Amino acid sequence: MAQRSILIIESARGPLQAVAQNLQQTGCQVYSAQDSRDGLQKAMEFVPDVVVLSRELNDDDALDLCRSIMRNVGGETAPAILIAPTGADLSGIDDPSHDSRLAESLALDLLAQCVKTLTFRARQTHDSQSVLECHGVRLDPRFAVAEMDGVRLELTPTEFRLLQALLSRPGHVLTRNELERATGPHGKANPSESASESASRTRRIDVHIKSIRSKLNHKSVLIETVRSVGYRFREPAWNINSTR
């Protein structure tokens, strides 16, 4: 799994630096910015999993910065954004029996834990868009690029999604219904459709698979037909030369 990354934006060297140190100790990559302009630039450059904004930025600036980040770093790579309290609001504990420094330390620990949770969730989402590669076939879902042995494969969007579904689980059999769902909302069954319409949809999967195989050329054998069930992409340990 790739290293988790966090961008912390606060107007001066303040309490969030303690959060940064905490996160660095757990293996996170932490970037810092001291104003909205620098924060946006670094968000676009490094595309962090989580952005933490300080309350020391006034409310309008913080909200405008949130909108700018989401607008300029959108899609699957958009980070989670947390506006964190700082200064007098940091403790969050009104009990006068608590030492103020202890209260602040506890609040910082809770904030750090919240950021860790957000980075974990963000990384799970990003991992679903990870590059897939097996037997020299490589798919990069982020850019919708498919290659075989370094040569670009010209796949239609539907073919790309089908190959992505198969390549994401090599060795596992996917039914035609599962492959239909992988092609997007238009591939979902309509409860009112007739048996002939359902059969027509599943036959379309066969047609798409045949087209993908033709584009894989001599590696078409990587997509195996499992009679009466569906298809699977050959597991990594399978020897492609065994069929020649």
TrEMBL record:
Would you kindly state one Gene Ontology biological process term found in this protein's UniProt entry?
regulation of DNA-templated transcription
What is any one of the record's Gene Ontology cellular component terms? protein-DNA complex
Q: Output the InterPro entries linked to this UniProt entry.
A: CheY-like_superfamily, OmpR/PhoB-type_DNA-bd, Sig_transdc_resp-reg_C-effctor, Sig_transdc_resp-reg_receiver, WalR-like, WH-like_DNA-bd_sf
- Provide this UniProt record's keywords sorted from A to Z: DNA-binding, Phosphoprotein, Transcription, Transcription regulation, Two-component regulatory system
Q: Where is the Response regulatory domain?
A: 5-119
Q: Where is this region: Disordered?
A: 181-202
* CDD domains per record: REC, trans_reg_C
Give a GO molecular function annotation for the protein.
Answer: transcription cis-regulatory region binding
DNA-binding feature ranges: 129-235
- Pfam families per the record? Trans_reg_C
Positions of the OmpR/PhoB-type domain = 129-235
What is the protein's name according to its record?
A: OmpR/PhoB-type domain-containing protein
